[in-house]
Every structure is written in C-alpha cells, then in structure tokens.
C-alpha cells in the first residue's frame, strides 16, 4: 500500500478541502435570469470541487425537468431560471444525497410558497444567506469530529499485525463514520415526519 496516501493524509486533505470550499453565496448568483444550459454550466463549474469522479455531473437538464415534474422547482419564466430558482437548486443538490424526493418536497414546499419571488422583505436570498452563513462554523465542527472519530478508530485494533493494521483502521473508521451518518439521517427523517407542514396538508386535502 506504499503507492497510496495514508489515511491521515486523506483526512487532512479532505478537512482542508472542506474548509476551503464554502457553499455558493447568494451574492455570487447572477441577478439576471438564465437559460437551462447556463444554469447547468454555472452549477457544474461552481460545485466542481464536490465531484467524486471527474465525469460526474452536478446538474443536468434531466434532473431539472424531474425536479419540476415532482414539484420541487417552480416552472421557468419563458424558459429562463431566476436567482430564486438557482437557490432552490442548491438546496436540492445538498438534500438529495441524504433525503428522498418526497422528504425534500415536504421540506421545501413551505419555503417555496412563502419566499419564492417574494418582494415583501423576506425573500429566498435572505433565507439562504442566513443558513449558509453558518456553514464555515459547521465545517470546522465536522472537521473536529472527523479527527476525533479517526483517533478512536486507530486504537480499536492495537494488537493487529502491521500488514493488517491499516485495513482494520480503514474498516473501523468507515464503520464509525457510517454509523454517524446513519443516525443523523434517521434524526432528519424523524424531524420531517414529526413536523406539521400546513402547505403539504392543504395539498393532500385537495387531492382527496
């Protein structure tokens, strides 16, 4: 395994990468409406750092059409997408790695109804900025948690032979991180299931 980076160096690089690549700020988004090709190009360029593989696509036309079909995204205005559309797409991008389309719809429908194209002070940019401004602090907390979990994982098999030690450390670290993600995902789902969403209840009544 001499040709591969050590677990510690991977962790250090990831934490630095995470802290250096902050979410898109609302001020970075163009104030003019964009066509779909322009939207996908912007998102792909700006979120390129989050790709696992170079050929991965951050956002495609098919994805956007599916989001609209599932009522996650309001329809474009004359085939153009506004800044509010872009902000919604960023939320969807982060949520879709953890939540089902149904859960994302439950969570975002009230936000869309209340803040999308709202001109009464509290708008999508205001809401997005207040949430994303906390991301640097959250990245720091996550980095500290990762280091602590890694330290614990490195001591689970102290008697393991050297040739097995790195694999067992990797296995332990992935298991502990996966447990962390699994429990947090369950909590997120519990929060969504337990919350009363007036907009969603009203939509259900109309379907009856």
Q: How does this model look, in words?
A:
The protein has a two-stranded antiparallel sheet with strand order 1-2. The protein has helices at residues 7-20, 36-46, 61-69, 83-95, 101-115, 124-132, 135-153, 162-194, 198-207, and strands spanning 34-35, 80-81. It has one domain (7-207). The mean pLDDT is 91. The protein is elongated, with a radius of gyration of 21 Å. With 208 residues, the protein is mainly alpha-helical. The longest helix has 33 residues, at 162-194. It has nine helices and two strands, in the order H-E-H-H-E-H-H-H-H-H-H.
In whole angstroms, the N-to-C terminal distance is: 61 Å
Spatial ordering of strands, largest sheet: 1-2
The fraction of residues in strands falls at under 5%
Uncertain runs? none
Quick one: biggest sheet?
2 strands, antiparallel
Helix content: 55-70%
Averaged pLDDT: 91
Number of strands: 2
Please, how many helices?
A: 9
The H/E string reads HEHHEHHHHHH
Work out the radius of gyration: 21 Å
Which structural category do the helix and sheet elements fall into? mainly alpha
What is the count of structural domains? 1
Shape: elongated
Concise structural overview:
It contains 9 helices and 2 strands; from the N terminus they run αβααβαααααα.
